[in-house]
Design a protein that fits this description.
Layout: H1 3-27, H2 30-42, H3 46-73, H4 76-93, H5 100-117, H6 120-130, H7 135-164, H8 166-187, H9 194-201, H10 208-211, H11 215-244, H12 249-277, H13 280-299, H14 303-317, H15 320-332, H16 337-366, H17 370-386
Helix pairs in contact: 1-6, 1-7, 1-8, 2-3, 2-11, 3-5, 3-6, 3-16, 4-5, 4-8, 6-7, 6-16, 7-8, 7-12, 7-15, 11-12, 11-14, 11-16, 11-17, 12-13, 12-14, 12-15, 13-14, 13-17, 15-16
């Protein structure tokens, strides 16, 4: 296969990965956008939807381990295409719910399974195969689809929410998934593409069991756990928190979109930086920024401070997603990249479910998010301390 053909195939794979994550980046945050109007219509406590988000996180986490293993062994067209189709059907059916158990089934289980299959893990494997010399930047560009999806889709859906209600938000999300599906399938490399598969298939690397015998593996698991804990507390509750502080629904929804814009900048900068210096310093800066804004929320909750929360937290939000590929490749090798990234991401999302659930429970108990912000500050400081134990060189089995 000649070089121009390879280049076109690589760019097609990158575009397909970007589209998959663009859809996921918008759809998974719709529950945060619609949380307040949904509970007000039905008279539920916020923890009823918090339960659905927590289940989503745990099911998504389990599915991501599977998606990583499948990405190492199966057709990426099947994994990504099947996941995108399942996500679209499940999120569209959310428009019909009238009981908490339905949200638990559709969003918490079915959407989570589809979202886990069409996720950053198989996309990361696909993009790394296509761009072996620019792993950090290429994965950052693909992952920026999540930020741009959050920016564009949440801004549009906030307008839909104001104009025609929360049910229409889920209808349009379902339609969008199915419209994008054929374009994704056209860009994903075929299973028989030996060039796309060869570079990782022949690579050296530790098995999952061998990686689990290293300190680097456990430090990374803790960092990704803390990252997810904060991520999904903020994205689930920031719109409702802003509305509680007197901010209108459209402006509050656009704060979530603003996080998508700054996340786009943060993730691309982190990927570019990691290709030159390694993934450690982008990680340090990410957790330092989080500690700063969580501390600010304990001191002041004015509109300006909430905007700073969205701005700064957004810059850190997706930073660790492309860095997971770099951490795994540099620490453990590429042979079992999908499975190892899947484990990191599983822990990230499982702890994200705990963060979303804890935020809802603490609010229901006290009428305030102050306790949750204090917990998030403490865990961010802990993560900063843990970065001192990370190593840039290949981990050695002990």
């Amino acid at each position: 296969m000649n070089r121009p053909t390879l280049r076109i195939g690589a760019l097609a794979a990158l575009t397909a990965g970007f589209l998959v994550l663009f859809m996921g980046g918008g759809a998974r945050f719709a529950i945060g956008l619609t949380l307040k109007p949904m509970v007000e219509e039905f008279g539920w406590d916020r923890s009823r939807l918090g339960d659905a988000v927590a289940v989503y996180q745990f099911v998504l986490a389990a599915t991501m381990v599977l998606s990583g293993t499948l990405a190492d062994r199966m057709s990426l067209r099947l994994v990504l295409g099947g996941g995108l189709a399942a996500s679209g059907v499940a999120i569209g059916l959310m428009s019909l719910i009238d009981a908490p158990w339905q949200a638990m089934l559709l969003y918490g289980c079915l959407f989570a399974i589809g979202n886990g299959l069409a996720s950053v893990i198989p996309v990361g494997v696909m993009v790394t195969r296509a761009f072996p010399g620019r792993v950090g930047l290429a994965n950052a560009v693909a992952t920026s689809g999540m930020s741009l999806g959050q920016l564009v889709m949440i801004a549009a859906l906030a307008a839909v929410l104001v104009a025609i209600g929360w049910r229409s938000v889920f209808v349009w999300l379902g339609v969008a998934h199915l419209v994008v599906l054929p374009f994704v399938l056209a860009g994903v490399p075929r299973r028989g593409d030996a060039v796309a598969r060869g570079s990782l298939a022949e690579a050296n690397g530790l098995t999952v069991a061998q990686a689990a015998r290293t300190r680097q593996f456990w430090v990374l698991l803790l960092l990704y756990a803390i990252c997810g804990f904060g991520d999904f507390f903020v994205t689930t509750h920031v719109v409702a928190f802003a509305q509680d502080r007197g901010i209108g629904v459209l402006v509050a929804g656009n704060l979530l979109a603003l996080m998508g814009l700054t996340g786009l900048l943060g993730v691309v900068a982190a990927g570019y930086w990691s290709d030159r210096t390694g993934p450690l310093w982008p990680t340090v800066l990410s957790f330092a920024g989080r500690a700063a804004v969580f501390g600010l929320m304990l001191l002041d909750q004015s509109l300006l401070s909430i905007a700073l929360l969205a701005l700064v937290f957004g810059l850190t939000f997706l930073v660790l997603a492309p860095l997971a590929v770099v951490f795994v490749r540099d620490s453990f090798g590429a042979r079992n990249m999908g499975a190892l990234i899947g484990l990191l991401t599983m822990v990230h999302y499982a702890c994200g479910g705990i963060g979303a659930y804890l935020g809802a429970r603490l609010f229901d108990a006290s009428g305030s998010y102050d306790g949750a912000f204090a917990v998030m500050l403490a865990t961010s400081v802990l993560a900063l301390a843990l970065t001192a134990a990370l190593r840039r060189r290949r981990a050695v089995v002990t």
